[in-house]
DNA sequence: TCGTGGAGCAACATTACCTCA
DNA sequence: CCTGAGGTAATGTTGCTCCAC
């Protein structure tokens, strides 16, 4: 697996410091969820593999694979987790993971819940899982993926916005450059220059009595980085209320 | 009080399956 | 029927926090 080394230098990192989901009752809840997989695993991998096999059993044994995903089925007809505790023993033999498709009703409820809070504490997770006849792990995974999708969408929106900003700045730069060359041309033609009124757009610098828009100050604007997505936060110079937001999910 | 190991969690990258044009 | 693209559920890894010891 290829992971970037700067993986954790992201927006989410500092948010993790605020562990809004931390719930004192968590331990009890999680023990409940992982009932039967409570062996003291020494490594994460072993935990994962055990949890994985548990999931596979449910996914396969529950039979909630795509072929039975007709739009009309009711939530209560989803048996898989109803069998939260039962293992079903399905086709765990071939090791293939069958992918279930959430019903429209389930997706709707999950979406609505996500709108209210994009993370769930263990109690909420369990309640939601129970309501939807899903496993808590499935709810958890759905929220993880949903957060990822939201972030991706927001990134795309940000990117588009920055692209437009860049284009606007380029245009502005071009305009200013043109203005500079025009002013230079005027300056090189004293007979014309003397008879002209000073440009009304130029303001006097009160302290030095020189025009604030002297030629040197009209150099092309240089951004903090050559790229609009430079190392510095691209939003640093953009008022918060002007930042675009990804559409509702 | 401090260090340590385990557990749980979220973020992230990736994989694998499914649908649909 | 085949196929490639896109969507998304699921998996694996990593780092962080909390807590018991």
UniProtKB/TrEMBL annotation:
Looking up SUPFAM superfamilies in the UniProt record yields: Homeodomain-like
User: Which controlled-vocabulary keywords does the entry list?
Assistant: Coiled coil, DNA-binding, Homeobox, Nucleus, Transcription, Transcription regulation
Which InterPro entries does this UniProt record tie to the protein? HD, HD-ZIP_Homeobox_LZ_Class_II, HD-ZIP_N, Homeobox_CS, Homeodomain-like_sf, Leu_zip_homeo
SMART domains registered for this protein in UniProt: HALZ, HOX
Q: Which stretches are tagged as biased composition: Low complexity? A: 37-48, 217-237
Listed under GO cellular component are: nucleus
Chain segments annotated as coiled-coil in the UniProt record = 159-186
* Top-level taxonomic group: Eukaryota
Localization, per the record, is: Nucleus
Chain spans, region Disordered? 27-97, 217-249
Gene3D superfamilies (alphabetical): Homeodomain-like (1.10.10.60)
Report the DNA-binding ranges.
95-154
| Residues covered by the Homeobox domain | 93-153
Q: Name one GO molecular function term.
A: DNA binding
User: What protein family does this chain belong to?
Assistant: Belongs to the HD-ZIP homeobox family. Class II subfamily.
* Protein name in UniProt: Homeobox domain-containing protein
This protein's species is: Eruca vesicaria subsp. sativa
């Amino acid at each position: 697996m290829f992971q970037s080394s700067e993986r954790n230098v992201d927006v989410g990192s500092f948010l993790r410091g605020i562990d809004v989901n931390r719930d004192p009752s968590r331990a009890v809840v999680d023990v409940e969820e992982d009932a039967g997989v409570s062996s003291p695993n020494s490594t994460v991998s072993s935990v994962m593999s055990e949890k994985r096999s548990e999931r596979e059993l449910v996914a396969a044994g529950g039979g909630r694979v795509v072929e039975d995903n007709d739009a009309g089925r009711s939530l209560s007809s989803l048996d898989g987790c109803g069998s939260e505790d039962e293992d079903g023993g399905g086709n765990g033999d071939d090791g293939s993971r069958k992918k279930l498709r959430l019903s429209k009703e389930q997706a709707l409820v999950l979406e609505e819940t996500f709108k209210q809070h994009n993370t769930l504490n263990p109690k909420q997770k369990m309640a939601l899982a129970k309501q939807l006849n899903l496993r808590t792990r499935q709810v958890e995974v759905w929220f993880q993926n949903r957060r990822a999708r939201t972030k991706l969408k927001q990134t795309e929106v940000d990117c588009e916005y920055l692209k437009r900003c860049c284009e606007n700045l380029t245009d502005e730069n071009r305009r200013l450059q043109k203005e500079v060359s025009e002013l230079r041309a005027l300056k090189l033609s004293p007979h014309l220059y003397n008879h002209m009124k000073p440009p009304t757009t130029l303001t006097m610098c009160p302290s030095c009595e020189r025009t604030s828009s002297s030629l040197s100050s009209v150099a092309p604007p240089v951004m903090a980085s050559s790229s609009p997505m430079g190392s510095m936060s691209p939003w640093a110079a953009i008022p918060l209320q002007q930042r675009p937001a990804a559409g509702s999910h």
